[in-house]
Amino acid sequence: MNRTYLTNIDTSISDVDFTQHKNAVFILHDQLNLDTWPSWIREEKPLLIFIESAAKGKTLPYHKKKLVYLLSSMRHFAIECAEAGFPVYYHSTKQHYDRALKDILSQYEDLHFTFMTPSEWDSRERLRTVISEFSTKVEEIPNNFFLADAEEYKERVKDGWLMEYFYREMRRKTGYLMDGEQPEGGEWNYDEQNREKLPKDHSVPSIAETETDEITREVIEMVEKWYSGHFGESEDFTYAVTRRQALYRLNEFIDERLDEFGPYEDAMAQGKYDLFHSQLSVYLNNGLILPKEACDKAEEAYKNGNARLNSVEGFIRQIIGWREYIRVYYEAMMPEVREANHFDFTNKIPEMYWSGETKMNCMSECLKPVIEQGYSHHIPRLMVLSNFSNLTETDPRELNRWFHLAYVDAYEWVVLPNVLGMSTFADGGVLASKPYVSSGNYINKMSDYCKHCDYKISKKTGEDACPFNYLYWNFIDKQRETFSKNGRANFMVNMFDKKSNEDKKAIFESSADFLEEISRYKKEQ
Ligand code: FAD
Ligand code: SF4
Questions:
Q1: Is the CB of 515 under 6 A from ligand 1?
Q2: Residue-wise pLDDT tens digits, 403-414
Q3: Which of 75, 111, 178, 482 is deepest in the core (most CB within 10 A)?
Q4: pTM of the entire predicted model
Q5: From the alpha carbon of 375, which atom of ligand 1 is closest?
Q6: Quick one: which ligand is closest to 316's CA?
Q7: Does the C-beta of 381 come closer than 6 Å to ligand 1?
């Protein structure tokens, strides 16, 4: 494989004589780690096929940085494989993968190829059409990028099995933070200690930035040319794009941020977007880093006394608990869940999710890193951006599409369960026990945003009152049927009912005005 790069679609980087190869392996953009593939591949070095599909890249107007990240990582990986002695065919096409693969298979009769089950539904369906046309020449092997066997848990998760119990089973299976049969320190979960606000002037270490090399610069040029109308900007691209660079970031997180990850896990702060979060989802989700590697290193930091237990347990729970559980949910609930919309909301997403422009400081602060970098940590996603979408009665499928296109770490298997299951209650309560909605109090408790806002957090209704305050009660009243069925949330309905008629009227009026005036995104997302 030569190192001439691709700025045009429908070209190949490498000249491969297919007649010289009997076995080929097709590697998708999120399967970039040969350690997870069967050992015969590393030993026999068959032809590796990589395809950049513009049709896939245009299924949504994905953030330009996401496209740059995915394509640059795949190109770097393909070049590394070629340097390690693999024959490599790297092709860029306007078509979908299945078309490109069918073209190859129909031209070269002796060629057989193997692919790993894609983690995303649509790619899986497409590749299965290749099997149905070329059944004797194509082999599908199970996806090996996750720790849990989805088949083992699917039915229980579909029946509402809680993440906490799944997580305990994963702790026992993996042995992380176990003291014999018991959890390290006596508790399974130390979240009680993980809800602190960031103290004023508390220093937060910065994350290393990777310099763009020639390959990434070429990809940026191509993305600007072929995906010009897409979300976000490609400039100031600083993500790692190779395994070595991603491992550097993992080590940096373990050494500099893991210890304080726990206490400030739910905190948000003006102008500080990563805080003590790892920003590793980007690398975990395309294989540059494996989940086991991240958890091994975190546990080692605890054993060496370099990170406190509540931080390490919290981090490991996110990976072997939430991340794995979310993926099992996807396997259990697809494809019907795609259309889930428990509250039957039909509104388009508010315009501000695209422009970032709003007087609401929390929204502006949480949208900024998404528009600029395609990233924010969990609490802005859940308690600000999803919360506001729920309170403004936005169609959850619209929100799901927005999260999918706007975040660098988004793939359908992970974004959909988080949006339609966790944050919007669109599935009616399979994943979450209640809708994630809150008034401005939560945001004020966990951040310093309200101090910098034009709206007044202390005001409950009226023009300059915090919109979260009245929209929250408006939502509780309108969706009382859902809340009343839930023991944990029913008390909110009771609280609303105890308000004076005057207060209720003011809540309804402020909400109606706000909902009528809010500008919605008009183009197709
Ligand atoms: P950290 O806080 O450092 O956590 C460590 C790791 O745990 C993450 O890298 C991630 O791999 C894993 N993790 C934690 N929570 C979850 C979770 N709920 N689901 C899956 N993995 C989890 N995560 C994605 O990877 N891609 C998405 O598209 C995505 N969309 C989301 C949308 C919404 C509405 C919500 C509420 C959450 C979403 N998440 C998504 C989960 C979570 O917010 C991100 O994984 C996390 O914020 C990534 O940042 P980090 O790497 O700094 O995470
Ligand atoms: Fe957000 Fe309300 Fe606080 Fe403003 S006052 S930052 S809108 S929570």
A1: no
A2: 999 999 999 999
A3: 75
A4: 0.97
A5: 49
A6: 1
A7: yes
